[in-house]
Specification:
Elements (H helix, E strand, L loop, with lengths): L1 E4 H8 L9 E4 L2 E9 L10 E2 L31 H18 L5 H4 L9 H6 L3 H32 L1 H9 L4 H37 L12 H27 L3 H7 L9 H33 L10 E7 L9 H15 L4 E7 L10 E2 L2 E3 L4 E2 L5 E6 L3 H5 L3 E4 L13 E5 H8 L8 E3 L6 E8 L14 E5 L7 E8 L7 H9 L9 E4 H8 L1 H35 L1 H9 L4 H36 L12 H27 L3 H7 L1
Parallel strand pairs: 1-3, 10-15, 12-14
Antiparallel strand pairs: 1-4, 2-3, 5-16, 5-17, 6-16, 7-10, 8-9, 8-13, 11-14, 12-15, 13-14
Helix pairs in contact: 5-8, 5-10, 5-16, 6-9, 7-8, 10-16, 10-18, 10-19, 16-18, 16-19, 17-20, 18-19
């Protein structure tokens, strides 16, 4: 029996409604399709699921095969993770006594690790979600500070109206209620517009999400309720201070002097809010700047090969043919010749694991002929390759020779080491001609060459040590063709499929992708974090600029009389411009100082997520300098229009008005 993934059902079987009951062939074994599973299953992820018999011969104590399994279980009520792990460890000790002595070296140091499935699914995205949540929170605070500034300015300009209401008998509680109701209307309107924008923003976000994250984003009714409640709560909370200040009114003074009497009372609070906006926006800008610099460093790392115009085509032969069968060598050799003959192909070779691909074969150390063992501290990759692999993919030969026709299946077993492995394992000695074993029972290999280091696994990982062996001496059922094309490598996809099918019509090509796409996928999480935090940082900077503009513009309107007096006494228009801009610059510098302090404190938290940054320190001085300069420049630009308006004040009109 077999279950199909919906994606495979649609692409391979054309969404055939009659698929249930049909027979499919997997590695030479017939399976009956009994159902189709949804495509959004994240764990366990597969194209086809088949039953696994735990009582089969493979799991008997005398079986020569040792299979690694991941077990999924549901804990009994009240049982903790620690208790489950302790109980499993006891079972492992009991199993050690049942298995034969030859299994001891495979089971040495075995232990049980019980991990919640939730942690397995979200461990690599938790930091991204936390950053997103923090960015949203900071933007919300800046928006709320803007709303509070707006309400403060509005309440100050309505002092005469409020005084009249108070004179007519309105109590303080009633005045506060009126202000809060107005804030509630503002929150309702803003929340509705935000939800409409959220529908559009969700579609945009889906385009940015990398394949490693779930892209099935939907706005549920719970989301709408939460957003509405948060908007109402935020505006009511930040509207409370303006409402309280507006309710404290001296009726006689307000009716006699009008709004001028209250022009300086809320100025300090408004300035404080603007300082907070600038500081919070600088924190977001600093985070975005660090991610940008990290992404640029990651994009410029040395790869060790030439990725341009490379097509990767992975083929997995049936396991029924055996893992070391020479049939694999014959098949892949013929497929290589057929692909080489395709129009547009410059070079072609085969490899067991291509750069930046999944790591599927590694050794723990090198057993040298002098009796010592070299252990690198990291996995030592073991890669089977065909002839011309180094030339095809662009890996430089540093010493010795590449594999040749004389390195046949019956010839002396040879190997080529990466530069880092040769340097650390043999230090000052010449590695050429040296011999070693990958395992105590493995055949002895003679080193015939040394090549440059290549990035494997991911770009943010240091070069892993690597051993290359000829494919004919170490055949594998799973190989990837590396094809160098004259033009767009995607144009060769159909030809490669036909070439493989020409040898075995039942043999599919499981993966076809350009190396450029592999590179893009490897940096997709970093690009996503950079783009998302960058968008929030720009939004925060825009909101902070609006806040600065609002405060300076309101200050200019309240200081019209003062500006008129200054100009009547001989002040130049340039002096007025400097006066207004200077006020904005002081706010910006104060906010930048606070923001830098907060950013340096939060840098410790960012540095704890080692996967977030690459090649840049969390306290990177250039980033701090650039974002601080940007914040000050934006603040100055926000002051420009109010300053120009102040320069055009007519002293006679201003004095007559007052």
């Amino acid at each position: 029996m077999a279950l199909l993934n919906e994606s495979l059902w649609r692409t391979r079987f054309g969404a055939d409604e009659q698929i249930v009951g049909r027979t499919i062939n997997l590695d030479g074994t017939a399976y009956t399709v009994v159902g189709v599973m949804p495509a959004n299953i994240r764990y366990p992820r597969a194209d086809v699921w088949t039953p696994f018999a735990l009582d089969s011969e493979v799991f008997s104590t005398h079986s020569p095969r040792w299979t690694l399994l991941t077990l999924i279980a549901r804990l009994k009520p009240g049982v903790t993770i620690a208790q489950a792990q302790s109980n499993l460890q006891v079972l492992i000790h009991q199993m050690d006594q049942q298995y034969p002595p030859e299994a001891a070296r495979f089971r040495a140091g075995a232990r049980a690790d019980v991990v919640p499935l939730h942690d397995v699914l979200v461990h690599d995205v938790r930091s991204q979600l936390l950053i997103l949540l923090g960015a949203v929170g900071l933007v919300l605070l800046i928006a709320c500070a803007n709303v509070a500034n707006l309400l403060l300015s509005r309440s100050a300009s309505r002092s005469r109206e409020i005084a009249i209401r108070a004179a007519l008998g309105a109590g303080r509680r009633r005045l506060i209620r009126q202000m809060l109701i107005e804030s509630l209307l503002l929150a309702t309107t803003g929340g509705a517009l935000g939800l409409v924008s959220g529908l559009w923003g969700t579609q945009l976000l889906k385009q940015l999400i990398p394949p490693s994250l779930p892209s099935t984003l939907t706005l549920e009714w719970k989301t709408f309720v939460f957003v509405a409640a948060l908007a109402i709560f935020s505006v009511l909370l930040f509207g409370l201070a303006p409402a309280l200040m507006a309710s404290i009114v001296d009726v006689n003074e307000a009716l006699k002097n009008g709004p001028v009497a209250r022009q300086y009372k809320s100025a300090r609070l408004r300035s404080f809010l603007v300082l907070g906006e600038i500081s919070l926006s600088l924190v977001l800008l600093s985070g975005a700047g660090l991610l940008v610099r990290s992404f640029l460093h990651l994009s410029q790392v040395e790869l060790g090969f030439e990725p341009g115009n490379l097509l990767l085509a992975t083929v997995q032969r049936p396991l029924t043919l055996g893992d070391s069968s020479q049939q694999h060598a014959v098949f892949f050799s013929e497929a290589t010749d057929r692909i080489r003959a395709l129009p547009g192909v410059l070079q072609v070779a085969a490899t067991r694991q291509y750069p930046l691909g999944e790591l599927n074969n590694a050794a723990l150390g090198l057993y040298l002929t002098d009796g010592t063992t070299y252990r690198a501290g990291t996995p030592i990759l073991v890669d089977s390759i065909s002839l011309d692999y180094f030339q095809t993919i662009g890996i430089r030969l540093l010493k010795g020779r590449a594999f040749e026709d004389r390195d046949s299946a019956n010839a002396e077993a040879v190997a080529i080491l990466s530069e880092s492995l040769a340097r650390h394992a043999f230090k000052d000695h010449n590695p050429l001609g040296q011999q070693f074993k990958i395992g105590p029972t493995m055949p002895q290999l003679t080193i015939v060459g040394v090549v440059s280091n290549v990035r494997n696994g991911s770009l943010d990982r240091e070069f892993l040590p690597e051993i290359y062996v000829p494919f004919v001496q170490e055949p594998s059922f799973n190989m990837t063709f590396v094809i160098r094309s004259k033009g767009d490598p995607h144009n060769l996809a159909s030809g490669v499929r036909q070439a493989v099918a020409g040898i075995d019509k039942n043999q599919p090509v499981s993966e076809l992708q350009a190396m450029d796409d592999v590179l893009a996928t490897s940096v997709a999480p970093q690009r996503f974090r950079m783009q998302l935090l960058g968008l929030f940082a720009l939004l925060a900077l825009a909101l902070a600029a609006i806040g600065v503009y609002g405060v300076i513009a309101y200050s200019v309107s309240q200081r019209t009389f003062e500006i008129g007096i200054r100009m009547a006494l001989g002040a130049e228009r340039s002096n007025i411009f400097k006066l207004i801009v200077g006020q904005g610059v002081r706010l910006a510098l104060g906010g930048v100082a606070i923001g830098i302090a907060v950013a340096l404190i939060l840098a410790r938290l960012v540095s704890s997520f080692s996967q977030l940054l690459y090649g840049v320190d969390a306290n990177d001085p250039p980033t701090i300098i650039v974002v601080s300069t940007v914040s000050v420049v934006v603040a100055i630009l926000a002051c420009y229009i109010p300053a120009r308006r102040a320069m055009r004040v007519d002293p006679m009109i201003a004095l007559r008005y007052e």
